[in-house]
């Protein structure tokens, strides 16, 4: 089953961890010096916060796929929605290795669909497209060159997303 994902930038990580631990009734499943994540079952959400220097508030929304096939299906849905896709393969982001597809909604909100492949020891890998600003895993989609043009098939040759 896919899981809704929310990532917030926060100014004070410790204060925010206390707040969300009380709200969710559980300790974070991942806790680092600059990041925390809860895998909440009710409601089913992957909720993450980070204090990496970005403006506090919503960094991005997303959907965590439970398999590569589910990620490909989400890619087709993103394609049908009409957003330009930025795929990332085996990227390091938020202390995890994942395959991803990024897009923006009509308001410019970044959407991340991803399938987690395993843990990582760093917040992000410096050479990955997601590290374009050096402070967050979510890419600057206006600076990143989409590999799949708006309205094109997700599985176009060379797109790398399927």
Q: Strand sequence of the main sheet, in spatial order? A: 2-3-4-1-5-8-7-6
For the report, how would you describe the main beta sheet?
8 strands, mixed
- Alpha carbon gyration radius: 15 Å
**What is the terminal separation in angstroms?**
19 Å
Alpha-beta content class:
alpha+beta
From the spread of the alpha carbons, the general shape counts as globular
Strand runs, count: 8
Classify the helix fraction into a percent range: 10-25%
Uncertain runs are 128-136, 148-162
Helical stretch tally: 2
The chain-level mean pLDDT equals: 82
N-to-C SSE string, H for helix and E for strand = EHEEEEHEEE
What would you note in describing this structure?
- The structure is a single chain.
- By secondary structure, the chain is of the alpha+beta class.
- It contains two helices and eight strands, in the order E-H-E-E-E-E-H-E-E-E.
- The two termini are 19 Å apart.
- The C terminus is likely disordered.
Question: What layout of secondary structure does this protein have?
Answer:
Blueprint: E1 3-9, H1 13-24, E2 30-31, E3 35-41, E4 44-50, E5 57-65, H2 68-81, E6 86-93, E7 96-104, E8 110-119
Parallel strand pairs: 1-4, 5-8
Antiparallel strand pairs: 1-5, 2-3, 3-4, 6-7, 7-8
Identify the notable features of this structure and list them briefly.
single chain, 162 residues, alpha+beta, disordered C terminus
